[in-house]
Amino acid sequence: MTTILRPPITIEEFLKRPETKPASEFIDGCIYQKPMPQGKHSRLQLKLCEAVNQIAETRRLAIAFPELRCTFGGRSIVPDATGFKWGRIPFDQDGEVENVFATYPDWVIEILSPDQNATKVIRNILHCLKHGTQLSWSIDPGERLVLAFLPDHQPLELTEDDKLPVPNFLELNLTVAQLFGWLKAGT
After folding, report:
1. Of 160, 61, 77, 90, nearest to 122 (Cα)?
2. CATH class of the region 37-181
3. Distance separating alpha carbons of residues 71 and 93, to the nearest angstrom
4. Distance CA 157, CA 79 (A)
5. What is the pLDDT of residues 115-158, one digit of tens each?
6. Main-chain phi, psi angles of 129, to 5 degrees
7. How far apart are CA 63 and CA 53, in angstroms?
8. Average pLDDT, stretch 52-77?
9. Where on the phi/psi map is residue 114: left (φ > 0), alpha (ψ -120 to 50), or beta?
10. For 84, phi and psi rounded to 5 degrees?
């Protein structure tokens, strides 16, 4: 992430600004632009959201969202993928998903890009856990490694045949090897 604005502004001022591509995040009074997603990042993001939604959305358990802005606890962040339990998803009077999510996600997934600062990503993950997120993954395609973060626990370092932990509202059996297997087209 690169800083694109230095003088501190308020979160309200940030939210009035037009969206950027790639997305910008508001952290500690500063704006940081996320790196542009590349091939491996995009592929994993797509397949994860598809896998979760295939299981959870039709049963009204949860929905996975790619690149969803979540504003809570003084930050406005855009994780690579988020999962929300059905009862926490903001719906409008027509039963449609709201545009604004002014709350923490139940599940956060971050996929590291080659030049991304892992410390900034982990700080966002810790912020989410502090405010109610049940689980977060930090996926590193270059290392073929997933770090799983749970509230009040040391991160789990997961590789190859390790089964990935999932939130309690989701039944998804997935190993690290299967996750990275999605990088091969046609799988």
Report:
1. 77
2. alpha beta
3. 21
4. 20
5. 888 999 999 999 999 999 999 999 999 999 999 999 999 999 99
6. -60, -40
7. 6
8. 97
9. alpha
10. -125, 130
Q: Give the tens place of pLDDT for each residue, 168-184.
A: 999 999 999 999 999 99
DSSP one-letter string for the chain: -EEEE-S---HHHHHHSPP-SS-EEEETTEEEEPPPP-HHHHHHHHHHHHHHHHHHTTTTSEEEEES--EEETTEEE--SEEEEEGGGS-B-TTSPBPS-B-S--SEEEEE--TT--HHHHHHHHHHHHHTT--EEEEEETTTTEEEEE-TTSPPEEE-TTPBPP--TT-----BHHHHHHTTSTT-
Q: Are 50 and 44 in contact, with CB atoms under 8 Å apart?
A: no
51 contacts 172 by C-beta, under 8 angstroms? yes
* Residue ranges per structural domain of the chain: 37-181
Measured in whole angstroms, the distance separating CA 20 from the mean position of its chain's CA atoms is 18
